[in-house]
Write a structure and sequence with these properties.
single chain; alpha+beta; 5-stranded antiparallel beta sheet; 3-stranded antiparallel beta sheet; 12% strand
């Protein structure tokens, strides 16, 4: 049954893939090389497709899988994801989004209701205003972003507890508004602000610690879905080791950590994931 809905979405142009009803994580893994090793950047959302035969095969293997939809240019949409607080003291994304909408205005658009009490508000993808999963200046508001490299779960997917994703307003189904300018401004801080944390390596050869840090940044920025947190943590620990062993001064390490944030954003990691991973690395110093 869920496979039929996945096929319908695919016919409408959405790239879909199966996700776990328990964790929401993708069920499709990475491709393997000739030695049986995983090829980074080939699994999960990268497997999203509109091919009917592939979709039928995937849901034949996982008939109860939830429907993941790749956001970004492939499906032509991106999403705002205001969450309900899961623990006391956490920000209420729904309330914060409602306040922003009242203050600035936002046109009705295709919207999902999530089993956890949150929402997915879907907007038309614009090639001239590309977005990743970076929350920009909305960090710590409980409002997440799903852009290029991210995904959402689509109705009528059901979690393991039987609770389902639903369409909020049937009249808005597949009617995607352009996101308002104020929202783009909040999600894409001015270049001057972004550049404050950017990393500009000092002079040094390939074996110089600063050159090694630049190599770490390049690897983090280029890592695909499924390995981004792991590679970010690896990179952060390499920087921590350099500071601990006095290969670079603490100030250079702080600059590298700021640049790791930029690199992880480029790779598509959400702000809260970046912050959690870097804090974990610092705690091991």
């Amino acid at each position: 049954m869920m496979g039929e809905y996945a096929l319908d979405y695919a016919r409408r142009g959405w790239h879909v893939f199966p996700c776990s009803p328990i964790t929401k994580a993708p069920l499709v893994g990475c491709d393997l090389d000739s030695a049986g090793n995983k090829i980074a950047g080939t699994g999960g959302v990268k497997k999203a497709t509109t091919d009917a035969a592939a979709i039928s095969d995937l849901w034949g293997r996982w008939p109860g899988a939830m429907i993941g939809v790749a956001c970004g240019p492939r499906s032509g949409i991106w999403a705002i994801d205001p969450d309900a607080p899961k623990k006391p003291g956490e920000p209420d994304g729904r309330a914060n989004w409602a306040a922003l909408s009242r203050k600035h205005g936002c046109r009705p658009t295709h919207t999902h209701l999530t089993p956890g009490g949150g929402q997915h508000l879907l907007f038309k993808w614009r090639a001239d205003r590309p977005l990743t999963n970076s929350e920009g200046t909305m960090t710590r508001t409980g409002i997440n972003v799903r852009g290029d490299g991210g995904y959402i779960i689509a109705p009528p997917s059901k979690r393991h507890d039987g609770k389902a994703y639903e369409i909020a307003e049937p009249l808005d189904f597949f009617s995607f508004a352009d996101a308002p300018d104020w929202l783009y401004e909040m999600l894409r801080p001015k270049q001057r602000q972004q550049a404050q944390g950017s990393f500009r390596p000092s002079a040094g050869g390939a074996g110089h610690p600063i050159a090694r840090i630049q190599g770490i940044l390049n690897r983090v920025a280029q890592t695909g879905e499924g390995d981004r947190n792991k590679v970010l943590f690896w990179g952060a620990m390499r920087v921590v080791d350099m500071v601990v062993h006095r290969e670079v001064p603490p100030a250079e390490g702080n600059r590298a950590f700021a640049a790791l944030c930029d690199a992880a954003r480029h790779a598509g990691l959400a702000e809260r994931e970046i912050e959690r991973t870097l804090q974990s690395a610092r705690a091991r110093a």
